[in-house]
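User: Could you go from structure to sequence for me? I need the amino acid at each position, not a summary. Structure tokens:
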């Protein structure tokens, strides 16, 4: 059987990481004058409001703040339809709009998609494709080092 689900991990991660903290200030690419252009640049169809809705819903689930069942509404219209051809049966998705596709992508990276552990300063997410699956920071060069430095300072202070 051909897997009809086409994971759109890049769009999922871009979407989840569209509200970063920049120099200590929370920002949101999906608000304000540049939002429509940001969506176009990332090949994401629809309105900024629609993109924010599915982004915030998935982010809430990944952060453990919302039950996954809350994502059902985005995939409620999706159907898998068998198409018989010379090569056998191919499964096609019907009704998979963008929000549904990113929810399906989320489903394929569960257990590997997580928030950056530097939660006090960072709102980014990461998808860990390594065998060990032990990555903790969106970026070692920023959050990883910052957190290690802070923990080192804390240790020095407490001794
Ligand atoms: Zn981070």
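Assistant: Here is the amino acid at each position, in order:
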């Amino acid at each position: 059987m051909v897997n009809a689900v086409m994971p759109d991990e890049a769009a999922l991660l871009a979407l989840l990481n569209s509200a970063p903290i920049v120099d200590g200030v929370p920002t949101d690419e999906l608000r304000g004058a540049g939002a429509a252009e940001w969506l176009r640049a990332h090949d994401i169809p629809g309105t900024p409001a629609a993109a924010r809705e599915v982004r915030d819903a998935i982010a809430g689930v990944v952060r453990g703040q919302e039950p996954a069942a809350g994502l059902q509404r985005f995939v409620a219209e999706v159907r898998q339809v068998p198409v018989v051809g010379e090569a056998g049966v191919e499964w096609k998705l019907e009704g998979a709009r963008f929000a549904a596709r990113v929810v399906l992508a989320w489903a394929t990276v569960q257990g590997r998609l997580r928030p950056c552990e530097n939660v006090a300063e960072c709102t980014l997410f990461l998808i860990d494709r390594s065998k060990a699956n032990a990555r903790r920071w969106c970026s070692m060069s920023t959050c990883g080092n910052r957190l290690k430095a802070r923990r080192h300072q804390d240790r020095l202070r407490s001794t």
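One structural detail worth keeping in mind: The beta strands are 21-22, 25-26, 79-85, 88-94, 113-115, 125-127.
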